[in-house]
Design a protein that fits this description.
The chain has seven helices and two strands; from the N terminus they run αααααββαα. By secondary structure, it is mainly alpha-helical. It has one domain (about 10-120). It has a two-stranded antiparallel sheet.
């Protein structure tokens, strides 16, 4: 089996963040990129959006669009690492920290992100959307 190509690079994340990452931050982002790509290619996500690599190769899905979704997912996770896992907010000058629920995932796709990657319904498969129920 061939290794799938990378859908996202560290430089893409640096571009969205508008900064150059340190060596430690680069290692964190690389790990998050690998994790996000594997999640996007997982059987659970594939059941919803199809095989991303095949859809890109077939021209059904724009690589830049996939990159945009992945960069958003990775930046969200990286921001969580920077602020601190489960930290919802801090207040200064007096220090007050509020924690989020402990069961949130670090790398995740929102419903809207997954919906944006779903294949478009073909009109010949689903028809016009109207249906008839015959009784009797």
């Amino acid at each position: 089996m061939t290794t799938p190509s990378a859908l996202l690079q560290t430089s893409d994340v640096e571009g969205l963040l508008g900064e150059t990452l340190t060596d430690t931050e680069t290692a964190q982002v690389d790990s998050l990129i690998d994790f996000a790509q594997e999640k996007l290619r997982s059987p659970k996500v594939r059941a919803v959006i199809g095989d991303v690599d095949e859809r890109i190769a077939a021209g059904e899905l724009a690589p830049g669009f996939v990159k945009g979704v992945l960069v958003t997912v990775v930046c969200r996770a990286f921001d969580a690492l920077r602020v601190g896992l489960r930290v919802r907010s801090e207040q200064f000058p007096e220090l007050q920290t509020v924690y989020a629920d402990p069961n949130l995932e670090l790398v995740y796709f929102t419903d809207a992100e997954l919906a944006s990657l779903e294949p478009e319904a073909s009109s010949d498969v689903f028809g016009s959307g109207a249906f008839t129920i015959r009784i009797g």
